[in-house]
Specification:
With 309 residues, the protein is α/β, with parallel strands linked by helices. The protein has 2 domains: 106 residues, NAD(P)-binding Rossmann-like Domain (Rossmann fold, 3-Layer(aba) Sandwich), CATH 3.40.50.720; 177 residues, 3-Layer(aba) Sandwich (Rossmann fold), CATH 3.40.50.720. 31% of the residues lie in helices and 17% in strands. The protein contains 9 helices and 12 strands. The strands form 2 sheets. Strands 8-7-6-9-10-11-12 form a 7-stranded parallel β-sheet. Strands 2-1-3-4-5 form a 5-stranded parallel β-sheet, with helices on one face. The longest helix has 19 residues. The two termini are 28 Å apart. Bound molecules: NADP nicotinamide-adenine-dinucleotide phosphate and glyoxylic acid.
């Protein structure tokens, strides 16, 4: 029984070491793998080449290195009937809540305006608003969206969330489904997208969505680039309907050199780093799941490929 590791950046070694320390009986191989494909029982992957996973006839489970599994769901040759497990681990969750809190506070405290003032050597106070005057609305009330909302609670913002199915979360006004979206947007001053990329969420952050927000709202996208219609955001920024944006994910990554976001004064960008899986803590979730499967028990955090997350 062996596990194949394929990560995007050079963190394969960290995974191999963490697995060796936590599960010494499990052999691990780094991708590209030239050995017997039949030996591979598990794959731990981020953006494997399309068709790669169907090479392994004895695969029992596919673990995504990340929370999002769109990199797997978009593979037309993904082997059928093999469970796909998304990443749920405390390091990834904590990192996302840090980033969302930083971005929310940055918009709340006018940091884009002060960056512009600094560039122009202007000293101008902007009247501060109390946190309770703003609503932070989180699209996606999954593991990450809920933790981000919990982390924001002590600041005193009004909090709202939107999901597919109804939810009840203390201190958070919850909306769901397409019927609940407009009301959620109408009250939201700082919009955070923490949705998985699916056919339903593709392009959700668009002209219509921005028009439903109160004028001067901020948009933070940490879900996936495919959820944002980039030209619609540029238009909304130019009209002032959206006052500023923090973007971590893009339709094309790395962001192409000539892209208007690079130099837009109302856009703060980061290179898809809002949160990263931490191999040292994530390994426990992966090992526990393999042990569950080997003991004939059900895997945790298996995605439903028919709904896309
Ligand atoms: P999750 O636990 O699966 O939660 C997904 C949430 O989205 C659920 O609340 C779900 O609603 C909601 N949702 C899905 N489709 C919807 C739709 N059509 N309409 C309304 N709500 C919908 O996922 P997670 O672990 O929180 O991760 C969320 C996403 O964050 C990932 O898929 C990934 O794309 C992104 N991410 C980004 C980074 C980064 O560094 N930028 C890092 C990690 C993750 P229900 O509760 O009703 O099912
Ligand atoms: C990162 O984008 C993830 O999905 O974990």
């Amino acid at each position: 029984m062996a596990l194949l590791i394929k990560t995007d950046i050079d963190r394969g070694d960290a995974w191999a070491k963490a697995l060796a320390a936590n599960y010494p009986e499990l052999k691990t191989y780094a991708w590209p793998y030239k050995g017997d494909p039949g030996e591979i029982a598990y794959a731990l992957v981020w953006q494997p080449p399309k068709g790669e996973l169907k090479r392994y006839p004895n695969l029992k489970a596919i673990f995504s290195v990340g929370a999002g599994i769109d990199h797997l769901a978009s593979d037309p040759d993904l082997p059928q009937g093999i469970p796909v497990v998304r990443m749920v681990e405390p390091g990834l969750t904590a990192g996302m809540s840090e980033y969302v809190t930083l971005a929310v506070l940055s918009h709340h405290r006018f940091m884009l305006d002060y960056a512009a003032q600094r560039a122009a050597k202007t000293w101008q106070e902007i009247p501060q608003l109390p946190a309770e005057a703003r609503q932070v609305g989180v699209l996606g009330l999954g593991v990450l969206g809920r933790d981000a909302l919990e982390t924001l609670k002590p600041f005193g913002f009004k909090l709202a969330g939107w999901s597919r199915s109804p939810k009840s979360i203390s201190g958070v006004t919850c909306f769901h489904g397409s019927g609940g979206l407009d009301e959620f947007l109408a009250g939201t001053n700082i919009l955070v997208c923490l949705l998985p990329l699916t056919p339903e969420t593709e392009g959700l952050l668009n002209r219509r969505t921005f028009a439903k927000l109160p004028a001067g709202a901020a948009v933070i996208n940490v879900g996936r680039g495919g959820q944002l219609v980039e030209n619609d955001l540029l238009e909304a920024l130019d009209s002032g309907q959206v006052a500023g944006a923090t973007l971590d994910v893009f339709r094309e990554e790395p962001l192409p050199q000539g892209h208007p976001f690079w130099e837009h004064p109302r856009v703060f960008i980061t290179p898809h780093v809002a949160s990263m899986t931490v191999p040292q803590s994530a390994v426990r979730a992966v090992v526990a799941n393999i042990q569950r499967l080997e003991a004939g028990e059900a895997l945790q955090h298996v995605v439903d490929l028919t709904r896309g997350y």
